[in-house]
Amino acid sequence: xxxxxxxxxxxxxxxxxxxxxxxxxxxxxxxxxxxxxxxxxxxxxxxxxxxxxxxxxxxxxxxxxxxxxxxxxxxxxxxxxxxxxxxxxxxxxxxxxxxxxxxxxxxxxxxxxxxxxxxxxxxxxxxxxxxxxxxxxxxxxxxxxxxxxxxxxxxxxxxxxxxxxxxxxxxxxxxxxxxxxxxxxxxxxxxxxxxxxxxxxxxxxxxxxxxxxxxxxxxxxxxxxxxxxxxxxxxxxxxxxxxxxxxxxxxxxxxxxxxxxxxxxxxxxxxxxxxxxxxxxxxxxxxxxxxxxxxxxxxxxxxxxxxxxxxxxxxxxxxxxxxxxxxxxxxxxxxxxxxxxxxxxxxxxxxxxxxxxxxxxxxxxxxxxxxxxxxxxxxxxxxxxxxxxxxxxxxxxxxxxxxxxxxxxxxxxxxxxxxxxxxxxxxxxxxxxxxxxxxxxxxxxxxxxxxxxxxxxxxxxxxxxxxxxxxxxxxxxxxxxxxxxxxxxxxxxxxxxxxxxxxxxxxxxxxxxxxxxxxxxxxxxxxxxxxxxxxxxxxxxxxxxxxxxxxxxxxxxxxxxxxxxxxxxxxxxxxxxxxxxxxxxxxxxxxxxxxxxxxxxxxxxxxxxxxxxxxxxxxxxxxxxxxxxxxxxxxxxxxxxxxxxxxxxxxxxxxxxxxxxxxxxxxxxxxxxxxxxxxxxxxxxxxxxxxxxxxxxxxxxxxxxxxxxxxxxxxxxxxxxxxxxxxxxxxxxxxxxxxxxxxxxxxxxxxxxxxxxxxxxxxx
Length: 764
Fold this sequence. Notes:
By secondary structure, the protein is α/β, with parallel strands linked by helices. Strands 1, 4, 7, 8, 11, 12, 13, 14, 18 and 19 form a ten-stranded mixed beta sheet that branches. A six-stranded parallel beta sheet has the order 22-21-20-23-24-25, sandwiched between helices. The protein has 31 helices and 25 strands. It folds into two domains: 3-407 and 741-746, Rossmann fold (3-Layer(aba) Sandwich), CATH 3.40.50.2000; 481-715, Rossmann fold (3-Layer(aba) Sandwich).
């Protein structure tokens, strides 16, 4: 069969034990066996470390995709880096984020198997020699790539795929060459330099940091897998009589490589290098093979996230790849020039090389010219990709651009994390939804069924009680379990607008203070997420959230009507606890900035209602469930563009809206930071004078929309009916559907729902 290779610098896997039991259909058996040993399985599960080899959405998407590819019976491999240290652990000290190294391998990792027999060399530095026999890349420094395999089981179909993560190892002669005679100790200590490649995950989400170590990681994650892929291609027989396959004609029919963002973009020049320099394939043929093999997924339109590597760094680290990129770019520009004669500006816009004081390589442009398919991750995002980010490329080859709306695996994000809800659903419509989430549509028949309404509400209440108990046990915070659990969990970023949430919390607080006798819908506002260690504004936002909580949670006139909680160290295993307990899901990015979002989908399938902007997959969620069943507010993409054109003036809103002015004045006047009144100067200054994400422009609509949320929440029956309608309409957002579309429309393979026979039975 054709093999699928999913290349990613991040795989945010979380814990593996319970997922393995669920997919193998062993959970009840294990539960019982462990119970008979006098142990509690849930206690055991809590001991396992998260495999935190990702930052957020992009890395978690890769993990969901692996689950779906195995469940759909695809011959798929996930390839990435086995970071010794994953995403940092977050501690909150005096209200500030403090990072701690995530030493997740400290006690070993029972799920991985080292495969030293497949160790491969990866080359760096050196120089290029053009000889009559062809091009040679020589005098390189070698680092060994040691593979570790982790099994990826499909759901009850006896398929087990592989995630192969590579660890960097210094060769034994490292730095012990003849010129380094004598300093043996120093040389052995220097092995660390080579092995640093797989030491630590870069903790930036949606932000490019052009460090040499990161570029090494990006080449490492491509060079080892490609050798592996080609070895496997050559050793596969498929009707080939040669003992060793030398013809690459059929390569794209047997191999599909998916690039998860531009991080593995070096696959394109590396595959060219192997085909042309090593396998002696003709250049044009090699280019055809490369393009037919690779496909690229774009994950963001934020300019600060786009990878633009200095040419000078390439020259030093990967000299041959730089030559290849120059040649590919020349070919590409010749074609553009022929189609648009005299349009010099178009050539400049479309070049892979950006001219300027510092010449840079635009990795996104490299991916677009080197792939046969380019996709965005939600319909609105794919439209933006076609109409603005890659507009020129879309005009050149419109057939190349596609949409593949993201999804989440219903195994982890419903069955595993919310067994109560899964049971209530299965009782009504059977278990088919687990592998075909569109079957949830059948729940629409029960929207007015009183027992079903009661059962769904009961499960939610149980989840809330359980989470409240967890919060009390772990963080010593007492919350009111009958309050609305209002949750925003995601990486801290200005575009995600946690600040808008803060302004609402302050507004609510001020309303209670101005008339304490008034009746209020009680809320527990929970905000969680990590800030990149170098992202000053994001760290200030965390400090602001904790400071607001400090004041509100200790004001006696508030009581248990309002609490603001910062959820420390948000990660996959915490998401599995908080999402099933949420009543309200906040998805409030400025329209046109969140490519898709996947947390939004997890909340929807777990019975929370969404308050959100028309951004990312929220648009399609509203389309599936009906806009009236989400709390949609604020500017649309067109409005944001119009406001940009007109010029956004924050002060105008500040002057016009008294509640907004009061909240902003409290932040800037030190009401929430009496010890340090100027603490939030930078935050207020940003909001007033250079807010790219227009927080104030959506404030009024947001506050009003939150009022509608309050109103509906007081009517538990109507609220629960909306919840059921949302769950029933969430089927589209299964990663099984997403992977089905990738398979059919990009990779050219047919997924099979067939269960292969177990290993103890003979195969047909």
